């Protein structure tokens, strides 16, 4: 496997992980309708990126799963984590803060991976790979900005209040 294949494989995994975390966050915070709906919507972007990376991966002899991690797997994990969190008795705002921090960090990593892939595509003059990066990376940046905005919105109140 060459280095380009490794970069595509890593980005495929990272996008899948980000989609899963966004779905987990949505399901953990169903009572906050904005979090629930926006997180689910932007998870769909990462799920689409997983499909597109699997498709372009064939050009680099990769056999990547073109289906993102299943929702049933995510829900099972949410139930398990939910039980753990309830046992700790954290305030919902503290849990949301933690979840948004996780999404932010993951989206930042995915953004870097898209940048690496775009630079690689330019060096190789691979127009299809570059077009994929140019199409998907802006959505990842929007995911990152959403998590950052929500963190700014809730951070002070969450940390200062009892």
UniProtKB/TrEMBL annotation:
This is DUF222 domain-containing protein. It comes from Rhodococcus rhodochrous J3. The lineage of its organism: Bacteria, Bacillati, Actinomycetota, Actinomycetes, Mycobacteriales.
């Amino acid at each position: 496997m060459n280095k380009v294949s490794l970069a595509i494989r890593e980005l495929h995994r990272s996008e899948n992980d980000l989609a899963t975390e966004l779905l987990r966050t949505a399901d953990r915070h169903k009572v906050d309708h904005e979090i629930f709906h926006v997180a689910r919507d932007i998870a769909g972007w990462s799920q689409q990126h997983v499909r597109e990376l699997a498709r372009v991966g064939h050009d680099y002899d990769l056999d990547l799963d073109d289906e993102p991690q299943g929702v049933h797997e995510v829900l099972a994990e949410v139930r398990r984590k939910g039980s753990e969190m309830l046992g700790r008795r954290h305030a919902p705002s503290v849990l949301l803060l933690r979840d948004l921090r996780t999404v932010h960090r993951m989206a930042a990593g995915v953004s870097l991976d898209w940048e690496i892939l775009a630079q690689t595509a330019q060096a190789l003059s691979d127009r299809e790979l570059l077009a994929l990066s140019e199409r998907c990376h802006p959505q990842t940046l929007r995911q990152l900005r959403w998590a950052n905005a929500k963190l700014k919105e809730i951070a002070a109140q969450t940390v200062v209040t009892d």
